[in-house]
Write a structure and sequence with these properties.
21% strand, 10 helices, 394 residues, alpha/beta, TIM Barrel
Length: 394
């Protein structure tokens, strides 16, 4: 597969040259160490056994997303996705030159719109103590990465926080109206934001929702309540019956998702990332068509920073050992075969278009330009990043 890095020129008084992909093609492969411990191996298209991180790079990916749980062992899951496991995977990603997204769930297990369970170690904490615990946990993990020279490009503060985080303390109260709903959640989310910035001031902090349709009705009140965010993260899982639907009610439609992404970026002034996607592993040819369509729609939106495929290394058969106690079946939206090879679902992520982008400091003050997944703002003949930093570090 062909992979092309695009060259671009950023013009200040003089021109500085750099090379970077303008669109992030990423994967969340947080399960990989657990799978390897179960004896699973991964192979490239020729059948040669290889490291999963090297394979993802070979497939055209330029970034990896890793979830972090507080104390999954105490929860009964095992020491997967805890700090030590995340550091091990981050080292492997860094060795391949892959960008890194860290996804803090602030839970001992999966956090999502229907489950934001407080970590057991924090269960007796007051809200003030939880804010301190968020800060300590966030700083602890990020500082450990930084100490090894691994600098995440993005950090999620919470996962699919449509209904808040760390219930009940940070639950969004939908019985209230407007910004009052968000008061408790924003306090906790902002604690995570500030903790990230204290260690990694240049990292983009993501607030992540499940469902692209959720952004428009969420972020207005979130920002009005004082919520801090550098990038909006969304989950979008197209389905066989809706992926190309034009019906407004089709929440799994790529067509609708593209509209929602563009609207969110325009309304809230920050880039948007598809932090999770995937498709039924049983139909890789259709998955290829669906993902190609999604890729084409999202790359056409300047404000869309990238797409991450969620746990593509799964095959629809493997499942974590603890799933049996929950009565859960194997995850069915991966993109690998049972012999550990990638399917055609991932081909859509392989190639980057070549283009030239010019950002000129002579543009009118207030002009916003999206480039390389970041928002740049022109002020007084200087170019600033979304974080308000001059771009003299290029």
């Amino acid at each position: 597969m062909r992979k092309i890095l695009l060259a671009f020129f950023i013009c200040f008084v003089t021109c500085v040259h750099a090379q970077t992909p303008s669109f992030t093609c990423g994967v969340d492969i947080s399960w990989c160490t657990e799978m390897e411990a179960d004896g699973r191996t991964f192979r490239n298209s020729t059948g040669t056994e290889t490291d999963i991180f090297a394979l993802m790079k070979e497939l055209g990916m330029n970034a990896v997303r890793l979830r972090v749980w507080v104390n999954p062992t105490r929860y009964g899951y095992g020491a997967w996705c805890d700090k030590a496991d995340v550091l091990q995977k981050a080292r492997r990603a860094h060795a391949q030159g892959l960008d890194l997204m860290i996804d803090f769930h602030y839970s001992d297990f999966f956090a999502d719109p229907g489950r934001q369970t407080k970590p057991l170690d924090w269960e007796d904490y007051s809200t003030a103590q939880i804010k301190t615990a968020i800060t300590q946990h966030t700083v602890d993990v990020l500082q450990a990465l930084k100490d090894e020279g691994i600098i995440p490009r993005w950090v999620q503060v919470g996962n699919e926080t449509n209904s808040g985080m760390i219930w009940e303390d940070g639950r969004i109260d939908w019985n209230k109206t407007g910004t009052a709903r968000f008061t408790d959640y924003v306090a906790l989310s902002n604690a995570g934001y500030e903790a990230v910035k204290s260690v990694l001031p240049d990292a983009l902090v993501i607030v992540h929702l499940g469902g692209a349709e959720s952004a428009q009705c969420f972020f207005g009140d979130f920002q009005a309540a004082g919520g801090k965010v550098d990038m909006i993260g969304l989950s979008h899982y197209p389905t066989a019956d809706e992926w190309n639907s034009v019906a407004q009610s089709a929440t799994h439609s790529n067509i609708n998702a593209a509209q929602w992404v563009a609207q969110a970026a325009q309304s809230f002034g920050v880039p948007v990332m598809i932090c999770e996607t995937g498709f039924d592993v049983s139909n890789p040819d259709l998955a290829n068509s669906v993902m190609t369509d999604l890729f084409n729609r999202m790359t056409a939106i300047p404000q869309c920073a990238g797409i991450f495929y969620w746990e593509p290394e799964t095959d629809g058969v493997w499942r974590p050992a603890c799933y049996a106690q929950f009565g859960w079946e194997a995850y069915r939206m991966g993109a690998f075969t049972t012999n550990g090879q990638p399917t055609a679902a991932l081909d859509a992520f392989a190639d980057f278009p070549t283009e030239t982008t010019t950002i000129s400091s002579e543009l009118p003050t207030g002009t916003k330009v999206f480039h390389a997944g970041q928002l740049f703002v022109i002020r007084n003949n200087k170019i600033y990043t979304i974080l308000g930093q001059p771009t003299d570090k290029f």
